[in-house]
Structure formats: structure tokens, C-alpha cells
């Protein structure tokens, strides 16, 4: 029989870094997320054995997208478990029209993309769960608690479901660690501390939209192709999967920049600010990177809607700064 992995667990890692007098609430939050991730990982890996979690439900979500069966299941697992935990005053999901209220005495709120990359579910491409945790600023918990900039997140991270299930978690002012799920125990264990990357080995965007890009975006892509990276002097390679978690994860580990730009004449983008852009912004920034819409620093941008969409350019700093430079004089009306 396979033996459990001998390593520092997620709970041990958190407790070792707790300040004196801490109540252990954050540890409990991460244990709830770990439970959900283990459950979803098991369901995803057995997806082909059940006709109930592949395909579509026949419903359309708040994003005007067809709902995948596994999308719906992931949302129900996370929202039910976390709402009943008593750890959150309010919860928001990409799959739901409105926020869900929790325990008004709780100190935190959480925003979730239950299953990012769901269009890739049926073709066995890496998908993930993204989360963003903020401290409650209202008395009992409400939508205003989510309208805080990325810099005010107390924790953000994602779980990626692939050949192994991994967790990346960022806390402002702390190192960013990668954890691996031990399927024998259902616990995440520390794999390694992630290090900042100076060079973008890869760039990731859907170049099929080339004709819809404005000239500033096209000039940036031409620059990525033409100019060598600033430290190693090597050429960049294009890699695009079409799953934010998968593309971001590769670029985070290897060095790269992900872009889902605006299109001609539009300032709004495709990706959701609360559920996708803010969590990835905090993680990348904790590793000395940058995130921008092209005009706004995503660490500073304050949300005004729970399903607000923005362009997202996130990765190594020189590449993001070059994007901002080229778009500086091309802001749409």
C-alpha cells in the first residue's frame, strides 16, 4: 500500500507562522478550502466514470454562459460548505447573481470562481478553483465588503486540478508557497517556496483576436516577439491553453505574462475583477510582478460591481510596464 507523503502540512505551515494570540480562524478557513478542494479533485478525476458531472445543465448563468454540470456541482460544494462554516459574513460566486449572506459575526468575506476554465472540462485540460478573502468592513457583512482593492485582500490563491492537485496561496508581506494534495490523507503539503522571475519565458494570449486588438495591443505583441528578455536576452515563446489558472500557473512557475486585453473601442474586458483578476494580482505582486488593465494598476482599482469585468495583463514587471507604456495614449472613450 502507498504510504502517505511525509512533509509539512498546510495546517502546520499556517500555525507555524501565526502571530502570538491568533485565534486560529485563518487556519480553519484554509482547512475548509482544503476539504472542498479534495472533494472536487476526487470528483474531477472520476468525471469520466459518471455521466452526471460532464456536459451542460441546460441553464445560463449570470455571465450569460452555458453552465457545465461540474461548474454547478463545484459551486454547490463550495458555497454550501463555506456558508455553513460560520467563518464568513458574506460569500460571492462567479456563478451566482447576488452575494450569499453568512454569519454576521464573522470577520471575513470570500469571493470564488468555483471552477475556472470550465470550457475545458470535457477535453481534460487543467482547470481550477480561485479564491479571494477580504476582511469585513461593514457591520454585518454585505456587498460593500467586496468593493475593496486587491491590495486589501488578506489572502488569495487557487487550486489547479491536473496530473496532481496543487494549491498556490499568497498573503501580503509573506512568501508565496506551492502545496501539493496528498490523495492518501486529503491534506495539502508544502512542495516549495516560489521565487520571483525576472524574465518572461512565455507570453499567453489568444492571438486569434488579432483583428479585434487596437494598435497599442498589436505593438505590444510585436515587441514581445521581437525584443529579447531583459535579463537572459532570450526570445519569448507563445503558450496559450485558454484556462486562466493553467496559463497563469505555468507563467508563475517558469516566468511569463498572461494577457486578456480589451478590444477595439472598448475599455471593459472579459475577465471578472473580483473572482479572477484580484486574486491573480495579489499572487503575482507578492512575487515582484505586476498586474494592470493597461490604464489602471489592478492592486489599486476599486470594484464597483460584483460581476465587473476588466482587461487583465499580469506577469513579469517589464512586460506589463511595456504594455502600459504602449497603451498610455490610446484609452478608448
Description:
The structure is a single chain. The protein is of the alpha+beta class. It has 2 domains: 184 residues, 2-Layer Sandwich (Fructose-1,6-Bisphosphatase, Chain A, domain 1); 126 residues, D-Maltodextrin-Binding Protein, domain 2, CATH 3.40.190.80. It is 27% helix and 25% strand. The strands form 4 sheets. The protein has an 8-stranded mixed β-sheet, sandwiched between helices. A 5-stranded mixed β-sheet has the order 12-11-13-17-15, with helices on both faces. It is globular and about 50 Å long.
Helix-strand layout with pairing:
Elements: H1 10-16, H2 25-45, E1 56-60, E2 66-68, H3 69-83, E3 88-93, E4 100-101, E5 108-116, E6 127-135, E7 153-161, E8 165-170, E9 177-182, E10 187-193, E11 202-204, H4 215-226, E12 237-238, H5 244-254, E13 256-260, E14 271-272, H6 273-286, E15 290-292, E16 309-310, E17 312-315, H7 317-327
Parallel strand pairs: 3-5, 11-12, 11-13
Antiparallel strand pairs: 1-2, 3-4, 5-6, 6-7, 7-8, 8-9, 9-10, 13-17, 14-16, 15-17
Helix pairs in contact: 1-2, 2-3, 4-7
Low-confidence stretches: none
CATH superfamily of the largest domain: Fructose-1,6-Bisphosphatase, subunit A, domain 1
Largest sheet, strands/sense/barrel: 8 strands, mixed
Q: What is the annotated CATH architecture of the largest domain?
A: 2-Layer Sandwich
Span from first to last CA? 63 Å
Using the coordinates shown, work out and report the CATH topology of the largest domain. Answer: Fructose-1,6-Bisphosphatase, Chain A, domain 1
Described by the principal axes of the CA atoms, the overall outline is: globular
SS content category = alpha+beta
N-to-C SSE string, H for helix and E for strand: HHEEHEEEEEEEEEHEHEEHEEEH
**CATH classification, class level of the largest domain:** Alpha Beta
The tally of helices reads 7
Query: How many domain units?
Result: 2
| Helical residues, percent | 25-40%
- The total beta strand count reads 17
User: Within the largest sheet, what's the order of strands?
Assistant: 4-3-5-6-7-8-9-10
Amino acid at each position: 500500500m502507498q504510504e502517505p507523503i511525509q512533509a509539512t502540512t498546510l495546517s502546520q505551515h499556517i500555525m507555524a507562522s501565526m502571530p502570538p494570540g491568533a485565534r486560529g480562524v485563518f487556519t480553519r478557513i484554509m482547512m475548509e478550502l482544503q476539504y472542498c478542494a479534495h472533494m472536487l479533485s476526487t470528483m474531477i478525476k472520476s468525471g469520466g466514470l459518471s455521466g452526471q458531472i460532464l456536459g451542460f445543465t441546460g441553464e445560463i448563468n449570470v455571465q450569460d454562459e452555458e453552465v457545465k454540470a461540474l461548474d454547478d456541482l463545484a459551486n454547490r460544494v463550495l458555497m454550501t460548505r463555506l456558508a455553513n462554516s460560520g467563518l464568513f459574513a458574506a460569500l460571492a460566486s462567479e456563478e451566482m447573481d447576488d452575494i450569499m449572506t453568512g454569519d454576521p459575526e464573522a470577520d471575513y468575506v470570500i469571493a470564488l470562481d468555483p471552477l475556472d476554465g470550465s470550457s475545458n472540462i470535457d477535453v481534460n485540460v487543467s482547470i481550477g478553483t480561485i479564491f479571494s478573502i477580504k476582511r469585513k468592513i461593514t457591520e454585518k457583512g454585505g456587498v460593500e465588503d467586496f468593493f475593496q482593492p486587491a491590495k486589501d485582500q488578506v489572502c488569495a490563491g487557487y487550486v489547479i486540478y491536473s496530473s496532481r492537485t496543487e494549491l498556490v496561496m499568497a498573503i501580503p508581506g509573506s512568501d508565496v508557497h506551492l502545496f501539493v494534495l496528498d490523495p492518501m490523507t486529503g491534506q495539502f503539503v508544502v512542495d516549495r517556496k516560489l521565487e520571483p522571475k525576472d524574465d518572461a519565458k512565455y507570453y499567453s494570449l489568444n492571438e486569434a483576436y488579432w483583428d479585434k486588438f487596437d494598435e497599442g495591443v498589436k505593438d505590444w505583441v510585436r515587441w514581445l516577439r521581437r525584443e529579447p528578455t531583459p535579463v537572459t536576452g532570450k526570445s519569448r515563446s507563445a503558450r496559450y491553453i485558454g484556462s486562466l489558472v493553467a496559463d497563469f500557473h505555468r507563467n508563475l512557475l517558469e516566468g511569463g505574462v498572461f494577457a486578456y486585453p480589451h478590444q477595439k473601442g472598448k475599455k471593459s474586458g472579459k475577465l471578472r475583477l473580483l473572482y479572477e483578476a484580484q486574486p491573480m494580482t495579489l499572487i503575482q505582486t507578492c512575487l515582484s510582478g505586476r498586474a494592470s488593465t493597461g490604464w489602471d494598476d489592478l492592486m489599486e482599482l476599486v470594484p464597483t460591481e460584483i460581476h465587473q469585468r476588466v482587461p487583465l495583463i499580469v506577469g513579469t514587471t517589464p512586460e506589463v510596464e511595456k504594455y502600459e507604456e504602449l497603451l498610455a495614449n490610446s484609452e478608448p472613450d
